[in-house]
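Data availability (excerpt). All sequences and predicted token strings are deposited with the supplementary files. A representative entry, FAD-binding PCMH-type domain-containing protein, is shown inline so that the format can be inspected without opening the archive.
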Amino acid sequence: MNTAECSNTINNSTINSNDDLDIIGKGDQRYNNYFQNYNSRIHREPVCYIRPTDVHQLTETLQYAQSINKGVSIRSGGHSATVYSVLDDTVNIDLSGFNQIHSFDPVCKTVVAQTGVSWKQFYTFTTAHSLAVPAGGCPSVCGGLSLAGGSNFLAPTFGYTVDSILEMTVLLANGSIVTCNDTVNQDLFWALRGAGHGGYGVVVDIKYQLYDMPPLLYFNTIELDYESSFEENLRRLVDYSKTMDTNIHLSLDVRKLYDRKSATTGGLHDPVLMKITFFYFGPPSEGETHCTALYNTLVNAKVKSLAASDCSKTFLQISLLGPDPDLIRRSYTKSRITHSSNFTTAAIADIKRVFSAFPPTSDHMTKKDPLTNFSFSMYYHGGQMNKYASDFNSYYHRHDDWAFTFIVTYLESANDALFSQWKDNVTSILDDFGPFIYQNYPDNEDPNWEYAYYGANYPRLQEIKLKYDPNNYFNYPQSIRINHNK
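Structure token line:
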């Protein structure tokens, strides 16, 4: 392979003629417009982007990076809040070309997906066979999310995505391609299911266990009034979750929007919208009964209908209701994964206080930006997700049953400083909910990220890192640190 470093003078045509690699160096007119991540506030300067489409090209990409003494960064869906999937001065491996689904076994109900596949693509394939697996809420990701947990509507019934992974194929720093599962390279298999972002190698594909999907499932949303009932309804939601059926998934979403047309007056206003999303895995008639019970505990609640006949959807329809994968915005994100007991009266009041510190109108921003969106979202992490021990795999957070995120998304860079103040206010209350962070929402400012992500599993993860990547080739600001004293 041509070992001329990717730079402003890179000879792309020479390299491409050798290996048919799609290489985008700084001298390529596509470089500045190349998609990095959904968080455009953070911009990276890799030496080049390479988009391999098979294992041979992937291995050649790794060898090329090593030949020019560069590290690599690895991106699949590009949904990293901290943009750790694209790093400065690295050869960026864009896995979007690894987008094949294969080895489907309808009898054993298993399938293999490459790590550039999206959940939209994955679910479109599996639901055609009335099968699915727990995943995440964003349709445009798959590989990266699978390696760090993975929780959506199906997770209370079947566990995290990592709990349904049967096998992985991995490219190691020494150039070898290895398989890991319960019988081969078991320690690597354990580590990648929860700490797959930790810098062990490039995961090529993942074999998943699938589960039968009924033709229709119950799905509903309940609208709430933020100003008058946020605290009371959040408390009642958490209380309901403590004893609810384990086939129920709940989420809460609160959003501050700007310059929206009022349905009543026709003029512009700046609403705060609040809703609960209710999902039941089972007969829709049972879902109606459970959702009605929740609805009756809430105050100032509105719902279009509770009837199963109005609230039945296919799982594919439900799974595609996630955020727009093409919506690229600047953003700040803060999160915690915590136990329901931490939602005390004082803690809930703090959530409302710091969330409500947003600009009241777009005119109060440094630069008017009507597309700004402040959100507070909570997701249920109980049921089957809590049934495994904290060391079943490297995903540690089995003692926690709720995760939440504060996010602001916007367009104008002039608002960075103002919105950073809002983020800092949010940070000031996070310790009330404990130290743990769901690693699919990483925090680049947390000084104790090792424990926050991995808890007591971290020392074992260090030992496995030393075994499979002894020179720490795969590294980034929050990759697993090697302990050479072991």
